[in-house]
Design a protein that fits this description.
It is built from nine helices and nine strands. The chain has helices spanning about 5-20, 60-65, 80-90, 120-135, 155-165, 180-185, 205-220, 235-240, 255-265, and strands at about 45-55, 70-75, 95-100, 140-145, 170, 190-195, 195-200, 225-230, 250-255. Helix 7 links the parallel strand 7 and strand 8 (about 225-230). Helix 2 (about 60-65) runs parallel beside helix 3 and helix 4 (about 120-135) packs across helix 5 (about 155-165). The longest helix has 18 residues, at about 5-20. The protein starts with a helix and ends in a 25-residue tail after the last helix.
Length: about 290
C-alpha cells in the first residue's frame, strides 16, 4: 500500500503528462470505450456491490461486514461504530469508502461531516478531509444523499481536489439526474464510476429480487454493474442468501479499487517513482458504456 502523499504527487504528475500530450495544453479528453462483455474477465462479469450508511448501528454493520465478498462498504463519518467496523471490514478484504454526507433537495438532516452549498472552499475541504481521516483504510468515497450539492460544479470540483490529493476514487451515487459529480471527477483526472442500480428502495422480497436481477443482467451484458444497497435487515437477509449463488450465474463480486486497477487503469511506472493505485491509461478510457 503506497502512502497517500506519494499517490497524490503522482496524480499531479499524471495530470501534467496528460496536459502535455494534448495539443491545446489541456488534459486530453476521456474517450468512450466499447462496452465490456463478460468474456473480458475469464467468462465472469463483475458486480461492484456497495453497502451505504454503515456506522450508526453496530449489529447491522457487523452483519454487513460478515457477508461473503469482496464488497465495498461505505461508512458515515464520525459515527459511533464506523472506525472499528471499517477496520474489521478491511481485515476481511472488503473495500472501504467514506460515505460523505452532502446537501439534498429535501433538506433532510445529514449528520456529522455534512457538506453543504453554503460552505466556502476552505470549509468544505477541511470538513471532507476530517471525515476521510475518521475512516481507517479508506480507498474512495461516494455521496450520502447529495441531490442538491452534486448539482454544484464548484462544490464538486473542491471535493475532487481532495480526492486527487489523497489518491482516492469517487463513486457518484447518482441521487440526482442533474449531478455533475462524475463530470468533475473526470475533469480532475479522478478514477470514477456512477451507480447503475439501487437495490433496496423497496425492501419487499420480490422488489429486492427484481433489482438484483437487473444489476446481474447489466453486469453480464456490459461486463460490470454498480449496485448500491443499505444495511437494512431485509437487504442483509436477501444478500446472505443470494451472494453465494453468484458464481453459478457467471458473476463475481469485486472491490472497486481492484476493478479500477485491473480493468480500466494502468499505473504510471517511471524508474524512480512508485505508481499510484489508479492512474488512467494515457490513451484515455471511460467507465461508461
Amino acid at each position: 500500500m503506497f502512502p497517500r502523499l506519494a499517490m497524490a504527487s503522482l496524480f499531479t504528475l499524471f495530470s501534467l503528462i496528460a496536459a502535455a500530450a494534448s495539443p491545446t495544453g489541456d488534459a486530453a479528453p476521456i474517450q468512450k470505450r466499447a462496452p465490456e462483455t463478460a468474456a473480458t474477465t475469464a467468462g465472469y462479469a463483475e458486480l461492484l456491490l456497495i453497502l451505504d450508511d454503515i456506522g450508526n448501528n453496530q449489529r447491522l454493520g457487523q452483519r454487513a461486514v460478515e457477508l461473503p465478498g469482496p464488497l465495498n462498504l461505505a461508512f458515515l463519518p464520525h459515527t459511533p461504530h464506523a472506525a472499528h467496523l471499517a477496520a474489521a471490514a478491511f481485515s476481511r478484504q472488503h473495500g472501504i469508502l467514506l460515505h460523505a454526507p452532502m446537501a439534498n433537495e429535501k433538506g433532510a438532516r445529514l449528520g456529522p461531516g455534512a457538506l453543504t452549498g453554503e460552505m466556502d472552499q476552505a470549509s468544505l475541504q477541511q470538513t471532507l478531509t476530517s471525515s476521510l481521516a475518521a475512516i481507517p483504510h479508506v480507498q474512495g468515497l461516494n455521496n450520502h444523499m447529495g441531490s442538491l450539492l452534486t448539482q454544484k460544479p464548484d462544490a464538486m470540483r473542491w471535493v475532487m481536489q481532495v480526492a486527487q490529493q489523497q489518491g482516492l476514487f469517487f463513486v457518484d451515487s447518482l441521487t440526482s439526474p442533474k449531478s455533475v459529480a462524475l463530470q468533475q471527477a473526470r475533469a480532475a483526472g479522478i478514477p470514477a464510476l456512477e451507480r447503475d442500480v439501487f437495490l433496496d428502495n423497496d425492501t419487499r422480497p420480490e422488489a429486492l429480487e427484481r433489482q438484483f436481477r437487473q444489476a446481474v443482467q447489466l453486469a453480464k451484458r456490459r461486463g460490470y454493474a454498480v449496485l448500491i444497497g443499505h444495511p437494512y435487515p431485509e437487504t442483509l437477509d436477501f444478500l446472505a442468501r443470494e451472494l453465494p449463488n453468484l458464481n453459478a450465474r457467471q458473476v463475481r463480486l469485486s472491490r472497486i479499487d481492484h476493478f479500477l486497477q485491473q480493468r480500466l487503469w494502468l499505473p504510471l511506472q517511471p524508474p524512480a517513482l512508485a505508481p499510484s493505485r489508479y492512474l488512467l491509461r494515457t490513451s484515455g478510457a471511460s467507465l461508461q458504456p
